[in-house]
């Protein structure tokens, strides 16, 4: 099944896709309020819960009549794995990157989460805006100490990610966090495809196009660390929770390592597509004027 979060005028809801329509699950009495809460409540039995909610739903909306948002707009954690494709490691050798003997994870602040078709902001602070097409794994069950062989039991499903990167800010520190976390730099979607639909998540073609030009072409089968390895590594240290997103690495073809570098600029359109998971497509726009946060007034 495919789970979407959508905006219909001023209302945000979620549902499952049937044909060209969304079965609105969020209007079912006593339904969880959002997708992360749905996973909190039903991570161990997601498919049966979706079917039961869909059977009780009375509202449908056309898929092309709403705005799709990130399937999980409010994840607790958004983690990304660096250097997980040999082809990307090979092209990164020119800037001195070498394969680590361990997995190299970095944090993307969850405030960067963005919808599948919403704009990516080109920062005022940098001209080194880049793309990284990746598959995202969504955790479905609270877990710690999971062995690789058992890891698929805690996976809810998969989605398409673009690990948008500001390269000069990325290199400010080994953590990469600043350059990976600018607002709008975590587009994902277009929906959460449940794992029952994807028999082998390590056999999916991944492509990235910029303005129609093919930049990245690979397969999730090229990943060095497999999904089970990732979950075992992470849960050896800390608890993963329902709705956490693991972005699993990118193949060769990023703009910053082209000769000459080819960074994104306003007006460019980036399309990341993964076989059976769909595609996301985001236009680059100039960063708007900074919005000054209002100071809350407490009674």
Identify the notable features of this structure and list them briefly:
alpha+beta; 6 helices; 2 domains; metal ion binding; Fumarylacetoacetase_C_sf; five-stranded mixed β-sheet
Output the structural class.
alpha+beta
* Termini Cα gap: 45 Å
Number of structural domains:
2
Give me the Rg, rounded: 19 Å
Assign a percent range to the helix content.
10-25%
Do you know the CATH topology of the largest domain? Fumarylacetoacetate hydrolase, domain 2
Strand content bin: 25-35%
Tally of contiguous helical segments = 6
CATH architecture of the largest domain, by name, is Alpha-Beta Complex
In this structure, how is the largest beta sheet organized?
12 strands, mixed
Average of the residue pLDDT scores: 95
CATH class of the largest domain: Alpha Beta
- Name the helix and strand elements from N-terminus to C-terminus, one letter apiece: EEEHHEEEHEEEEEEEHHEEEHEEE
Low-confidence stretches: none
Could you state the CATH homologous superfamily of the largest domain?
Fumarylacetoacetase-like, C-terminal domain
Taken from the alpha-carbon principal axes, the silhouette is globular
Keywords: Isomerase, Metal-binding
Family: Belongs to the FAH family.
Protein name: 5-carboxymethyl-2-hydroxymuconate Delta-isomerase
EC number: 5.3.3.10
